[in-house]
Each structure stands twice: as C-alpha cells, then as structure tokens.
Amino acid sequence: MSxxxxxxxxxxxxxxxxxxxxxxxxxxxxxxxxxxxQHGYFRTYFREQPDRFRKLQRxxxxxxxxxxxxxxxxxxxxxxxxxxxxGLVLGVALxxxxxxxxxFAPVTDLPAVGGVLEPxxxxxxxxxxxxxxxxxxxxxxAAARYYYPRTVVNQRRRNIDVxxxxxxxxxxxxxxxxxxxxxxxxxxxxxxxxxxEVARECDMIVRDxxxxxxxxxxxxxxxxxxxxxxxxxxxxxxTLSVLDSGSDFSTFLSDESETYMTEAKQExxxxxxxxxxxxxxxxxxxxxxxxxxxxxxxxxxxxGGDSLNQTKALVYxxxxxxxxxxxxxxxxxxxxxxQHEHDVDLSQExxxxxxxxxxxxxxxxxxxxxxxxxxxxxLVTNPISEIRKRDPLLSLxxxxxxxxxxxxxxxxxxxxxxxxxxxxxxxxKHTVGYGVVPFLVTTVPLTLFYEAERRREQRISSRFPDTxxxxxxxxxxxxRLVDALxxxxxxxxxxxxxxxxxVRNDITWNHDVEGALLSFADRLRVPQVTRTMKLIAKGSRSxxxxxxxxxxxxxxxxxxxxxxxxRRQEMSAYTAIVAIGFLVxxxxxxLLDTSYLQPIGQMATDAGGNSDLLTVSTxxxxxxxxxxxxxxxxxxxGSGLLAGKLAENDILAxxxxxxxxxxxxLAVFIFI
Length: 672
Prior knowledge:
The protein has 24 helices and no strands. By secondary structure, the chain is mostly helical. The longest helix has 63 residues, at 114-176.
C-alpha cells in the first residue's frame, strides 16, 4: 500500500466513508517532506490524523461538498488566520480608542496601583484586546467553517423528510404504470426541481449504476449508508428487502406513502413549534428589550449623562441589524420546507427556427420587425397585464423610478430641503418625505400584484383536489378524458374552468395528453398544479389506467394543501402576537413622548435657561422625539416582514403588514 494521502483528489465519488481514510501508519521524514511538497503544511498535518476527522468527512459527504476533509480544513485554517489578523488589528484599535476616551481613568486614578499601571496600561490594553480580537475572530471563523457542513446536512435532512412522501407517491404512480425499479428511481432523479434533495439522493443511485457499473442493489445500499435522513435510510432499507424478496414494488410504495406522509406532518408540527418559540423570542428581543434600554438611557440623560449616541446606536444600528439577522435565521430554517415547483419548466415546446423558404420571403424581415414592435408596444401600453403574467417583482421597474420622481418633485417644490440644517429643523417631515413616501410608493404596487397572484393560486389550489377526484371518478365510469374535462369545466368557475376547456381542446386537436397537461401547468403557474401535472403526465405515459394515476395525484395534492393550510392556521396566532408587540411598542413610545418629553420641553421653555432642576434644559427633546419616530418606523417594517415570513414562508407576504404598521406609526406621530 502506498503512503497515505500521496494522491491529490479534492473531488471524489461519494461512496461509503471508509474509503476516504487510509490506514494510519507512521511516516518517514522523507514521506512527510514529499507530502508537504505536494499538499502544503496544513493538508499534510490534517492527513496524518484521519481518525480525528471522520465525523467531518461524513458531514462533507452528506452535504455533497465533493471535498476531502484535509482540503476543507486547509482552507479553513487559511481563513481563520486571515480573520485572526483582522481581529488583532481591530482589538488594538479598540484599545487605543478606549484609551483616548478615558475609559481606563478609574483604574489609573486608584491611589494604590494607579501610578504603577499608568506607564504600562496602553501596551497591556493593546495586548489584551488584540489577543481577545484574535481569539474571537480566528476561533469564531474556524468553528463556523468546521460546523458549516453539519448545518447544510441538517437542512438537507429536513428537506428530504418533507418531500419524501410526495416523492414516494410519484414513484408509486410510475411503478403502477409498469416502470421497473431503476426507471422509477431515474425519473425521480430527473425531477430535482420538484423533489429537491430526494432527487439528488436518487441521482447518486443512477450515477452509480450508469457511470460506475454497480448493480442496483449495491447502489441503493451505498446511498443508504450516506443519506443524512433517517427516514430515507429506512426507506432504502425497506426497498432493499423488497428487491431481495421479489415482492411487488408498487404495493410496497403504496403502503410507504401513507407511513411517510404521517412522518412529514409530524416534521411540520415540530417546525411550527420552533417558529412559535422564535416569534416569542422576537417580541422579547426587539420589543421589550429595546423599550427597557430606551427608558434607561432617557433617565440617564435626564440626570445629566450623555446617552444620546447610545440611543442612536441602539435604534439605527442594533435594532435593524438584529431584525435582519433574525429574518435571515427564519429564512434558513424555513428553506427546507419551501416549495420548489415555482421554477419547474414543463414546456416541451422548443423554439423552431424559420425555414430557408420563409427567410427568403421578401416580407419576412418586415414581419419580424413588426412582431418585435408589437411585443414592445404591448409591454409599454399595458404594463400591468405583463407584470401579472410574469412576476410581481417586475413592478419595481416602474415603482422605483416613480418613487424617485416623487421625491424629486417634493424637493423641486420646496417641500423638502436638501441641506442637513434644513432637515434638522423639521426631521419628522423630512423623514416622511425621504423615507416613508418612497417606501409606500415602491411597496404598495408590489404588494397589490403579489397578493392578487397569491390569492389566485390559493383559489386554484383549494379547488384542484376535488377537480382531480371528479376526473378520476368519471374516468372509472368509462367517460373519456376529453368528456370528463368538459364535465369538470362546467362544474368549475373562473380561471380553472377556462384552462380546463383549453386542455380539452388541446387533447381533441393534437391527441397529445402529456403535452396538453404540461402546457396546462405552464399557463397556470401554480405550485400544486405544476407538481401534480408532472406526476399525471409521467404516469399516463407508462400506464393505461389513467383513473388510478389521477386518484393518486389527487390524494397527494390534498395532503400538500392540508399541510400548507395547517401552517397558516397555526402561525396566524403568532403573526398576531408580532403585530400586537409592535402596537405595544408604539403605545409605550407615544406615552414617553406625550407624558415625558413634551412636559420636559415645556419646562425648559418656561425656565428660560435658568432652571436648576436636574439640568432639564440639557435634555435634547427634539432629537429624542425624532429617534422615537424612526424606531417606530423600523419596528413596523421589520415586524411586518417577520409576520409574513412566519405565516406564508415568503418575505414578500409580509409587505402588506409592513405597510399597515408603518402607516399606523406615521398617523400616530402626526396627530400627537
């Protein structure tokens, strides 16, 4: 056997863990020098200690990083050294700043030790703070890099557990149509846009069979050994038992789909409990804690202390930054539960190049120019229709310039000043002009388009399972699919009815069931419909029993819809808690303003600068009122976005809450 780690293989196949770890053996100095020459000191050091990093290598494999542990740790060491240098510099700079501010004066003023410490205090503080910065930045970077693969593994595990029941239903539909086991797994592997990490696990099996020549039994066993999900591991174990015993694979999948759907619902309940705890933490951290600190800092200011800068840092830095980090955390936790079907491209139609005869026609060039001109004219003359067809975010292309024009008009008419002195005289008015008005002009159109699209999707999703049940029942009674579609279109209403009639006509004219179903999903752009149509289209291609395929799809659609509805119902209470938390914050801020700041300002005015009462005249009343107003706006915007993320797992769903809460804060401060 060659010396361990001689060959450099940073990207490797992901099989069982053992092959990544060579047998431990003592290296001669010559072998060690060769390793250092090939891989550097860091990789050589880590390669000599494989037993310490078996867990890390497993995380890397399960996270699909495609790296060996020594490559990853060598890069981690370089990042940690760079971060440590930055931390050292920042720590020394912080100590110098604290010395200049006199932060260590209480120590140097001590009669017993002050004289001894004063000459060495500056270098000692620089050493201590530099060492602290080095440890925090360097150690934090190393720890974050080391445990990052574990975080990715946990996200993949949750995604697999959520999507596995629906993937098994898809496999059941394909198997029911007569596909063999490997063909079924291959179809799932090709549907990564729908079944996420489950498809990636199946892709590993397909790659092992087609690329490396393993048999299916061995490929499933290897995938079973590496998957991060206990549920998928158990499913692969059961699949191996079925293959080994020769049992019916379709019947096995039918039983498994019910079992793992129960597991998915339990996973959803656990996730909702986590979100409920986080929503309560949000209220404590960003409502109660800021109020306590603001009141404390105001009391300090009243007693003659200078706490204005600390209040500004709390409101303008820590509050928005903390909210942003919290929302990002919620997003990371929610990502495995997000639906992937928005990005599925189901259209089988390819662009057809014009023939030579068409291009040679003298009117062809004029036709192409007119076609492009008509498309551009449609976009300009009817932008709302185009935005509704494509993406609500396209509204920003109109609303953002409109917001800039609005601000420019306010400046041009003299309503807003451009100088800092002018803004300082009427800060609330200029906050509204430069902040609130552009925010509303930008977000209101986006919210209207988004909510209209979301309600359309919900209406279709709620009716779609019943539509599929009627189609299945009609087909079982011997009614042709075309006639069944005509029957359902008369029973339905709105967009769904119109689209079903188009599907009926498409099948009648083109005699292509699969193409008609996929085009139907493309036009609707509804996640539930997209996944279901892909299931039915693939199943119908392999089976003549279309009624059973539709029935399977209907059950899967109903289960997914119920899971989504349960999330909305469970989180509606916590969304209300977040909104009530903002209202409590606003009420306390208003009470501080009306019962504390305004009387203090009046006392200072009445005293004429001669009052000896607790230096009232030194309290910056106007600045505190401005800070209070800004904090209410920040609270409204952040709380609204969080409420939408909790309820709908989409931050755009929180814009409507943000708009309402910001408007409430604005109205309250205008009238007090």
